[in-house]
Every structure is written in C-alpha cells, then in structure tokens.
C-alpha cells in the first residue's frame, strides 16, 4: 500500500492536510475555557450539518458503533420492542446490538441491494394498536451494498400509522456527504462518525437527539455510563467532558465543519453526486452492474460493484493493494466475494476519482475480466467534463 495514493474505501476517508495538522496540536488544559472555544463551535456546526435548529448534539470518543449504543442505551428499557429491516451488514450489526441489549427486535428481512421497506413498516405500525414498538431503526446509507434509503418515506409511514415510536437513523456514511434533514424528516436520534464525511480519523461518535429523545432519557433504564448523554451535557455546560476529551480530534472536527461550511453544504452534496455519477458511468462502460437494485437507491458515497458469477471480487481489492498500492473495499456479509466497493466520499475530487477508476480497470484486465482498458475512465471523464 502506498501512502501517496488516495484511498477508495468507504471510510476512513482521505484526510486533508490542514485537518491532519489541526488534530496535531499542543496539549491544552481540557477543563479550561480554551477547550470551550473548540467544543461549542463543534456542537453548533454538527447541528447545521444535520439541518436542525435545536437538536441536542453530542460528540463521544468512539466510532459510529458507539453512536448506535448511545441511541439505544439512553432512550430504551430492556424488553422494549424495536422495528428494523435487515438489508445489509450495518443494519444487521445494529440489530445484533439491540438483541445483545435485551431488546425485542422485529426484523423485516429485506433483499440486500434494496432500500428500506417503508410500505411494510407502515403495515406493521398500523397493526401495532398498543404501540408496543418504541423505536424504528433506519440505515440511511447501507455501506455494504451502496444503497440509500428514503428516510422521509419511513417518517411518512410512522405518520400514516399515527404511531408515536421514535425514529433512529444510522447516517454514518451519509451525514456530511449526502443530504440529511433531521428536523424535516422527524429524526429523533441521528448517528454518524468522524471518519467518513467529516474527513477525520476514526475516533468520534457524533449524535443528534431530538427533544423527544432527550425526554426518553428520563425514563430509560438500560445501563449506560460512558455514553450517558445527561452526564455529557453537564460536562458541556462547564466547557468540558465528564472525562478526558480527545482534544486533537475535536479541533480537527472544528476545522472540518468550517471547511464544509466554506464549500457550502449543498455544494458538498452536489460534489458527491457528481463524483458518484461518474463512477456509475464507468461501471456501465465496464459492462458491470451495481449491487444497488435501482437508480433511486444508488448511494452517492459508495458503489458496490458486482463481478461475474464464479469470479472472486476480493481478488480485485487484493491485487490493487499489492500491485498498485491502492485501497478499495471488499464485499461484506452476504455479498462477500461477489462485489468490490469504491468509496467516493469525503475529501475527494474528480481527478482523484479518475485515478481510482484507472487502477480498478488495470486490475480487472490483469485478472482476465472482459473489460476494455480505458473504457470506464473515458466514460467518467466525459461526464466530469459536462456533468457539473
């Protein structure tokens, strides 16, 4: 692997040098007002990215998985019923976490490559006359399959059923890269992490709680200590964490949020859509297909690309790393060996993406796939020249 090449895994993503330098800072007293000058702009900046006016935002030393646990442990009781669809590896892992916490999960099995079944959610919610379901889980962007789901449709399903369940959304690989509307979609807990759209190393779980979710913390009895949002809020009120904060990462996040604001949030989304569309043009030119079943669920942050039957897609990732020093993502779970993944999120440009497409082409030709060298790159180039 070469440190000189950009990475095309769907996280951690490429890190701008300015952000890396912001993380590399002298030690400060993390209980002084100086830390508050990092902390509060971060919390305000996250709220803007979530497109929320008054979300309660929290940043924990953790990853997106810790964000999942924060949502569950602060809002629920053992035995509470949760509704979730399993349509990829990351929705599967959140379901597994619920079960380990003693929650009663009603799982809607969904074909990998498809989005969340909002219509089926509506039917289930309408049948839940006693309102036993306390939370609906939704994975906005399933990183394993490159599938984006319609969170607004899930909220409409809750509304059509007149159901009071909270809506928890995993936005780990979408928030900061794709349009996310916490207030408009009625999201009660939004979860993301530092290592994807925010262009930082892994190490921060970033969450937003609605007023309804904060009210639920008053009666929730699942154990929590490290991830207790009430303890964290008390710390924030005193310009601190309830324990030692990761000051360098927080300072990097402060700069990342400033960079996103300077580019313009809508411009960030448009850039991701443009780069992703170029990748899809390349995939079509190669004669291959995406794991995502239809254009309405195509992700703008990661493309999972199917290879022909009998071919081990993991070989593409292995050869790219060993021969060309470039990183792509392997298939996970049910699609392991059947797809390879190209991440196209975070700090990325058209020109950087063309380098990844060029290497992917060389590897596929090396491995004997029926791909014409230069075909995908040319298709992407044509789009990038005219598709902006």
Count of the domains = 2
The CATH topology name of the largest domain reads Aspartate Aminotransferase, domain 2
Across the major sheet, the strand order is 1-9-8-7-4-2-3
Unreliable stretches (pLDDT < 50, length at least 5) are: none
CATH architecture of the largest domain: 3-Layer(aba) Sandwich
Order of helices and strands: HHEHEHEHEEEHEEEHHHHEEHEEHH
Radius of gyration computed on alpha carbons = 21 Å
What's the total count of β strands?
13
Please characterize this protein's 3D structure.
The protein has about 400 residues and is an alpha/beta fold. The protein folds into two domains: about 15-260, Aspartate Aminotransferase, domain 2 (3-Layer(aba) Sandwich), CATH 3.40.640; about 265-385, Alpha-Beta Complex (Aspartate Aminotransferase, domain 1), CATH 3.90.1150.10. The chain has 13 helices and 13 strands. It has helices at about 15-25, 35-50, 65-75, 90-100, 120-125, 150-160, 210-215, 230-235, 245-265, 265-285, 315-325, 350-365, 375-385; strands at about 55-60, 80-85, 105-110, 135-140, 140, 145-150, 165-170, 190-195, 205-210, 290, 300-305, 330, 340-345. The strands form three sheets. The chain has a seven-stranded mixed sheet, with helices on both faces. Strands 10-11-13-12 form a four-stranded antiparallel sheet. Strands 5-6 form a two-stranded antiparallel ribbon. A hairpin with an 8-residue loop joins strand 12 (about 330) and strand 13. The mean pLDDT is about 95.
